[in-house]
Amino acid sequence: MNSIINPGVFSATFALPSGVVDSHLKIATAAQLKVLLYIFRNSNEELSTEQIASALSLHTEEVEDAIGYWAGAGFFNAPT
């Protein structure tokens, strides 16, 4: 199947480290990927676990697990 990206979708973008795809796309759960994408998309905001869970229709435990996964993978720094 040939896919051609619609250039119009690039009017609003955000950056994502290539390591997400290279090393984690195959092994991360759907919830972990959703949480990562949501956090990167809203990186200019301070988000609570509850806000993320509500926005993604996930349980707070799933969000906490996902944040732990990505922190362990080095994508998030420990809070200061």
Detailed description of the structure:
By secondary structure, the protein is mostly helical. It contains 4 helices and no strands. It has helices at residues 18-24, 30-41, 49-56, 60-72. Helix 2 (30-41) crosses helix 4 (60-72) and helix 3 (49-56) packs across helix 4. It starts with 17 loop residues before the first helix and ends in an 8-residue tail after the last helix. The mean pLDDT is 93.
Helix count equals 4
Distance between the termini: 47 Å
| Percent of sequence in beta strands | under 5%
Overall geometry: globular
Category by helix and strand content? mainly alpha
Counted beta strands: 0
Uncertain runs are: none
Mean pLDDT: 93
Order of helices and strands: HHHH
Largest sheet: none
Using only C-alpha atoms, the radius of gyration works out to 14 Å
Helical residues, percent? 40-55%
